[in-house]
Amino acid sequence: MEYSSYISLALYFAVMLAIGLFAYRNSTDDLSGYILGGRKVSPQVTALSAGASDMSGWMLMGLPGAMFVIGFDTLWIALGLLLGAWFNYVLVAPRLRVYTQEADDALTLPDFFGKRFGLQKSSVRIISALVIILFFTLYTSAGLVAGGKLFESAFGMNYYLGLMITVSVVVAYTLLGGFLAVSMTDFVQGCIMFIALVLVPLVAYQQFSGTAEVLSLAGDSIAPFSESLHNMTLIGIVSSMAWGLGYFGQPHIIVRFMAIRSVRDIKTARTIGMSWMTVTILGALATGLIGVAYVNKFHPGLTDPETIFILFAEILFHPLVSGFLLAAILAAIMSTISSQLLVSSSSLTEDIYRSYAKKDISQAQLVRLGRYCVFAVALVASLLALDRSNSILSLVSNAWAGFGAAFGPLVLFSLFWSRMTHSGAIAGILTGAITVLLWIFVPVLPDGQTLSSLLYEIVPGFIASSLAIVLVSHFGKAPSASVQATFFAAQDKLALMLQADEPPVKQTA
């Protein structure tokens, strides 16, 4: 790797740290500012922040690798993700923005679950906070492993040095600037990812005479689209598209909706976010498809399909541009790590310590504690990441389903059903999480395989969680009048806000 690539990387790190310092000076005067940016985040930053924290390195490595290996079946996953993200903007975003403020200004997702039932200290709050802290600590460690391996494979650095650089930069700007820093860096990282996923497939495409040659060469390794469509089963389509269900329960994504400055801005954020997501997903799929054709034509010696983006960056571009493209992968990894660190820190600070502390604590002390928690979670995740051969990455591949099944139905019922009870909410979290774990790890099939080999675990987990919420709530005591009054007040406020955005009706003579 030439020095110009290192220059690009150094500039990227400098920008991230500068943003963290800027956010430190503008948003960290109280806990709301540190956790949610004071609910003043613009729709542009909201959209790209949600997208960047969502996709992570999976967008630039996992999705092209999936297209490279399994071919056009990957399109169903992409379609499911696009539909899930769109419904998340339509169904969850406006209601969550209003309801979290109406519910005594809830600052975190567990905080909202508790205050949804008029409770400051509740079992649903502590259970959901513990689930978030546990899984996001493991999730973060996997991101750090990916960062360490990126430095090792692309820059020739020692794995542990790469891990240290990754965690140091992420912790620095997250610890300094909190949510505003995370959102602003995600915005920049989202722009970098967008440019990279447009530039790489376009330049790679220039190595061929046209689309016909790409499809012909790719056809030597993957089935044509018509054959793939013919062979795809209904269960296979459901399993692939069910990835979209996960969006309703991802704390690091939906917290962006809680922080946007107004409900009126959500429509703008949706337009920007869905446009960004559509282009980047198509770019990732094109990178994988063209990558298959490129390998079959030029035989560059690719050993890992998930590194096809790195291969293109190193072979097809000037080292200065190559460094920028590799920084795009790092940006994708870091954007998700920072979001997970902040959500975990918020749960430790707001949902566990503040709820159960026996003495009052000032806003400045809470912010300081939040910074300590960011460092603590990062430290534990780094220790886990020291074992580069651990099985954490296999857990991360199922974490999307775990969060989606445990929290997705609860978020939807919290926003749409006034009759849901506190016991029903607890039952939903536990049933969804346990179903996913059983589906993944218990070898019940005759050949010793698990049920996840037949159907993606989020489907049974989501269904079981929904049924548990409905049944336990139906047979339990109805929520109090004050709890239901808060629910309907949020619905009325949202209706008024949406009505205010509608154009006036033209009067006819």
TrEMBL record:
<keyword id="KW-0029">Amino-acid transport</keyword>
<keyword id="KW-0769">Symport</keyword>
<feature type="transmembrane region" description="Helical">
    <location>
        <begin position="228"/>
        <end position="248"/>
    </location>
</feature>
<feature type="transmembrane region" description="Helical">
    <location>
        <begin position="454"/>
        <end position="472"/>
    </location>
</feature>
<feature type="transmembrane region" description="Helical">
    <location>
        <begin position="187"/>
        <end position="208"/>
    </location>
</feature>
<keyword id="KW-0739">Sodium transport</keyword>
<feature type="transmembrane region" description="Helical">
    <location>
        <begin position="369"/>
        <end position="386"/>
    </location>
</feature>
<keyword id="KW-0997">Cell inner membrane</keyword>
<dbReference type="GO" id="GO:0015193">
    <property type="term" value="F:L-proline transmembrane transporter activity"/>
</dbReference>
<comment type="similarity">
    <text>Belongs to the sodium:solute symporter (SSF) (TC 2.A.21) family.</text>
</comment>
<keyword id="KW-0813">Transport</keyword>
<dbReference type="InterPro" id="IPR011851">
    <property type="entry name" value="Na/Pro_symporter"/>
</dbReference>
<keyword id="KW-0472">Membrane</keyword>
<dbReference type="GO" id="GO:0005298">
    <property type="term" value="F:proline:sodium symporter activity"/>
</dbReference>
<feature type="transmembrane region" description="Helical">
    <location>
        <begin position="159"/>
        <end position="180"/>
    </location>
</feature>
<dbReference type="GO" id="GO:0005886">
    <property type="term" value="C:plasma membrane"/>
</dbReference>
<dbReference type="GO" id="GO:0031402">
    <property type="term" value="F:sodium ion binding"/>
</dbReference>
<feature type="transmembrane region" description="Helical">
    <location>
        <begin position="75"/>
        <end position="92"/>
    </location>
</feature>
<keyword id="KW-1003">Cell membrane</keyword>
<feature type="transmembrane region" description="Helical">
    <location>
        <begin position="269"/>
        <end position="295"/>
    </location>
</feature>
<feature type="transmembrane region" description="Helical">
    <location>
        <begin position="424"/>
        <end position="442"/>
    </location>
</feature>
<dbReference type="InterPro" id="IPR001734">
    <property type="entry name" value="Na/solute_symporter"/>
</dbReference>
<dbReference type="InterPro" id="IPR018212">
    <property type="entry name" value="Na/solute_symporter_CS"/>
</dbReference>
<dbReference type="InterPro" id="IPR038377">
    <property type="entry name" value="Na/Glc_symporter_sf"/>
</dbReference>
<feature type="transmembrane region" description="Helical">
    <location>
        <begin position="307"/>
        <end position="333"/>
    </location>
</feature>
<keyword id="KW-0406">Ion transport</keyword>
<dbReference type="InterPro" id="IPR050277">
    <property type="entry name" value="Sodium:Solute_Symporter"/>
</dbReference>
<keyword id="KW-0915">Sodium</keyword>
<dbReference type="GO" id="GO:0015824">
    <property type="term" value="P:proline transport"/>
</dbReference>
<comment type="function">
    <text>Catalyzes the sodium-dependent uptake of extracellular L-proline.</text>
</comment>
<keyword id="KW-0812">Transmembrane</keyword>
<feature type="transmembrane region" description="Helical">
    <location>
        <begin position="392"/>
        <end position="417"/>
    </location>
</feature>
<protein>
    <recommendedName>
        <fullName>Sodium/proline symporter</fullName>
    </recommendedName>
</protein>
<keyword id="KW-1133">Transmembrane helix</keyword>
<dbReference type="Pfam" id="PF00474">
    <property type="entry name" value="SSF"/>
</dbReference>
<feature type="transmembrane region" description="Helical">
    <location>
        <begin position="126"/>
        <end position="147"/>
    </location>
</feature>
<feature type="transmembrane region" description="Helical">
    <location>
        <begin position="6"/>
        <end position="24"/>
    </location>
</feature>
